[in-house]
Amino acid sequence: MRFFGWLIPATLIFCLISSTAYSQPLMSLEKLEKYVKKKLRRNSSSLRLNEKPIGNRGAKFLSNYSLMNSVQTLIIYKGQVGDEGVKAIANSAHLKNLKSLSLEHNQITDKSMGYLANSKSLRNLEYLNLYRNKITDMGAKKLAEESTFANLQELNLNFNLIRNKGVAWLKNSKRLKQLKNLNLAFNPLNKLGQNELFEFNLKRKLEAIYRSGKISQLNNQFIGNAGVIALLNSPYVEELKELHLEENNLTDESVIAIAKSPKLNKLEMLTLARNQITDVGALALANSKTLVNLKELDLNFNQIENQGAIALARAQVFANLEALKLGQNKIGTVGAKELKESKTLANLIYPIFGFY
Q1: What mean pLDDT comes out for the span 208-234?
Q2: Choosing a second label site near 350 at 20 to 30 A (CA), which of 10, 88, 159, 287?
Q3: What is the pLDDT of residue 350?
Q4: How confident is the model at residue 354 (pLDDT cuts 50, 70, 90)?
């Protein structure tokens, strides 16, 4: 009882301290102006206000302050800014050069999403951070359906109140066309919502890799089975002659999809080393009707045993194979003998169990 008698008052004191720290008296406009001037003299393109309690009054001041014309990055962290402050920022004639806006840990609700989405001043935004506020599905819907952010590439909505509907609206938005990263960690999403978010970010990741000209080079990207499925459903693979998927946490599910994909009929080199492929995956490859042009197949460091080795040794689809790598699997004497004596793999130039 003594312990609990001490714990309850201590907990109350902690809560009071936390509450007081967050709702401390607002900074005077005179002090704010002096601070902003000093900051902008050092760097006229960036203004960071960390734990400065400026409130809506301060946000309105900044919005009407001519020195803000040069600012491209504005960060207001724990500034006690609410919807009225966001409205002022969204309508500011002095913030048209903003590319990055961070309003993390404030008092922003769905109402602000309407102001931001319809802003004519913030159309150059590339990054918007609304971490830890009070935004729900309706706020997400406003951003998705009304947004003028044609250049927005990253949206951080971590620690809000967004559920599955919000994810769906953002994911399918026709206005946020340039969005590459959507962050929704610590929102009340169920498994379906989490999967939709993962698929969205994965799809945009593949798009970025494709634009970089490296869509065939996916080694160590950890895209998983979902990534392979998304890749095969994309228009990016139809002309590929090489596909490198080493160390991507792939299982037989991915290999089966690859083996069946009609889009990979021009593939000449396939790397699947360092994954979790078993005999099931090896059988799928052996029975493939599309990988007819394959010349190199790398399956090093997987979990293939005798059954898979025998299937590969007898696979007619691999009659043109010049390199088959099966080092560090679980193939025994029977499988190794079958591979060595294979008449189907007569064109092999390199040793099956070598590392090269």
Answers
A1: 94
A2: 287
A3: 80
A4: low
Q: Which residue, chain included where needed, has tokens 């706020």?
A: 139
Q: Record the pTM.
A: 0.78
The residue among 96, 84, 135, 92 whose CA lies nearest residue 113 is 135
Per-position DSSP letters for 264-282, written without gaps between them: GTT--EEE--SS---HHHH
Report whether 84 contacts 111 (CB < 8 A): no
Tell me the mean pLDDT in the region 308-316: 97
Nearest by Cα to 132 from 91, 187, 51: 187
Out of 3.80.10.10, 3.40.50.720, 3.40.250.10, 1.10.8.50, the CATH code matching 214-340 is 3.80.10.10
- pLDDT range class, residue 138, cuts 50, 70, 90: very high
Residues 6+ apart with CB under 8 A from 34: none
In sequence order, what are the residues at sequence separation of 6 or more whose Cβ sits closer than 8 angstroms to the Cβ of residue 112? 82, 83, 86, 87, 90, 133, 135, 139
Cα–Cα nearest to 319, from 298, 347, 297: 347
Please give the structure tokens belonging to residue 54: 């400026």
pLDDT tens for each residue of 4-36: 444 444 444 434 434 444 568 999 999 999 999
Q: Are 306 and 329 in contact (CB under 8 A)?
A: no
Contacting residues for 27 by C-beta, under 8 A, at least 6 apart: 35, 52, 53, 54, 55, 58
